[in-house]
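Re: the multi-chain job from yesterday

Posting the exact lines I submitted so nobody has to dig through the queue logs.
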Amino acid sequence: MLEIRNLNIEFHDHLVPETVVHDLNLRVAEGEIVGLVGESGSGKTMTALAVAGLLRRHDMQKTGEILFQEKNLLECGRKELRELQGSEISMIFQEPMTSLNPVRRIGWQVEEALRLHTDLDQKKRKERALEVLSQVELPDVERVYRAYPHELSGGMRQRVMIAAAIICKPKLLIADEPTTALDVTIQAQIVKLLLKINRENQVAVLFISHDLSLVRQLCTRVAVMQNGYLVEEGRTESIFMEPKEAYTRQLIAAIPKIERVD
Amino acid sequence: MKYIVRKLISFFVTLSLVSFLVFAAFAVIPGDPALSKLGTDATPSQLAALRGEMGLNRPLLVRFGSWAVSFLQGDMGTSYSYDRPVAGMILDKIPITLTLALMAFVLTIVIALPLGIYAAKHEGKWPDRLIYCMGQVTMAVPPFFLGILLTFFFGLVLRWFTPGGYVSYQSDFLGFLGYLFFPALAIALPKAAMALKLLRGSVIQEARQDYVKTAYSRGNNTNQVLYKHILKNALIPVVTFLGMTLTDMIAGSIIVEQVFSIPGLGRILMTSISGRDYPVVQAIIVWIAILVLVINLIVDPIYKGIDPRIRME
Amino acid sequence: MKKEKNWNLIIGCVLTGMTIIFVLVGFFYTPYDPETMDVTAKLAGVSAAHPMGCDNFGRDILSRVMKGSGTTLVVAAGTVAIGTMAGILIGAFTGYYGGVLDEVLMRIIDALFAFPSILLALVFISLLGPGKYNVIVALGIAFIPSFSRIVRSQFLYQRNMDYVSSAKLQGASDIRIMFVHILPNTLSVLRSSVMIGFNNAVLAEAGMSYLGIGVQPPDASLGRMLSEAQSYLFAAPGFALFPGFVIIVMVLGFSLLAEGMKDA
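And the result, structure tokens for all chains:
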């Protein structure tokens, strides 16, 4: 469903052009959860933003292909891309505290994708919004619907972000370090929630993280990135059992102690 | 409701405090109102009688109390210079100054909002730089000099209006508003320059926030992100600034009224200050205090409406 | 990243430098005596003899503008001095000690702060009467509330910092902590508000003198010149334009300088 071929991302905002992603190849099948891991600066977030169509700056250059349902996202027009964003491809971010608009009600923000991509009326939109808010296991959804972001905790906000992302039943959910800013118990809950959403909605997840223990709990396949290069890729268990690259071994060795949550 | 009650209490406390400070200030100045009323050839017994009649022998707080009660009843004292009730002299002037200030306020918003957004959208390009340079210069122009420039250019050179040709609001309201346009512009331009600079900076800063990325990821286009997401956030500091500006507009009106010969509060205030006509000065200052406090009372809930993070306690 | 030139600072320095030289020269030398009237030169236009022309009494405008800008700068400096000193004292004590004194003083300051400072100055001028020194006092007092608030919030913030606690442990007195330890740390914030205050003082002085309740003759004043010039706007536009432009250059130079120092 998603196929990245020979992706290069190059920045021109400094005197010397800087390539942050080199010849990346990656596939995500329908309904699959793929982990993209690496240290900060390895190019994983850039890859995610490129797939989400959020790297549209004049001071950079992207070559290669990002095929989403046979359509090359790097070549399609802005309007065409916007029609996919929020309806077919959606994204959640690292900082739930700042990723929601502080002066808009939760309901308004969760419904936004429906307003942009469907003709549903206000009543239908609210119905659907309450439905996804309960799907992400938020309590007292009517109250949450009317609340402002500052009235919710970080974990609740990340649930709201997930609800807003899945309201149009997208095919692909990109999760960029969605648990990094949360504390450990909440992290586990969010990971469980992503698994549940993946099964219930048949949505593929591209899970970007530096935390291999989370990746191991969640993903069927893993891709490891270092300095803009894809160094290793394969099924989660085989990567963890017999890593081929020295770098991957280092990353695995750096995991404190794995505890299974479910 | 608790919030409204608290605000009203604070309104009356501040108003009493300010009127008392004004009253006390005018009570301690050297010079005897009885003497200045009767002249230097009055006999001591005449003076003493008049002092008693004017209530000057009573303690300050008692005098303030009786003054405040009569003020509330509409009796604002008698002018020394004209020997007329102060209320009659100033009440019909208040709408003039207030209209001028409000008009200047509206013009400030009408100028600052579109230009600020436009400059932010074209950050670093030449329209932005041009607006920046013009704004910096405009901020440095005193409003009364701007008034003189407008009079010179639009009044004398282009003849779009007659300088000094004030139209009273009782006779021709539209003509009155028309005459106030250039005075209001003179007050508004420097404030608009400040507001637009603030708005531009605020929009640019908000555009870097994380929620903007979220908005794009849902398929909003640039204008939708700007008007539905960024603008409401970016307006928060601007609204605070505008709230403070509204009271400045009243001060600005008082000066600019002189440039355009508008018979508002400013005109009487100036003649009474030069003529040391204290009852009039005192009444006008208290009236301006009331206007300023009422403005603050109205503006406060607006901040809360625009920024949900401020709690209505 | 290429570093752009700090144009605000450069232009601000040039304009402010020019103003200061203009004013300093004016203290010692003016082309004509600013008070000498020349009936033959009434409302004379711009010429080599009178670079800015002459006013309705035939006085040389350039000489009067030089003297007038001197008065304006002196008034503004005096105003800012009074406002800053009193503001630092009030702000330091209320911010550092807090308590009842703080509550009462801040209640009054807040009430006064709601008023545009020029209105407060008008109240004081009507009590004191017009004149150069009274304008300084009136504007100075009018500026105290805003300075006190800024200083107070800085002291409130700084008094809980570690360096204050360590100074206390070493046995420094409160006065020493306030003025030797805390005050220097508030200077960068104070600097920009002093510069903004200076500009506001220039504008306020010009406004009051224009209204006729500020600086009185024989002191020359830009505001007063403007009010005199208004009747001759059509016959001699330069009479109003030159003093006005000098005010603009003065304020613009200073605000660009303040802006440039912020970026530097």
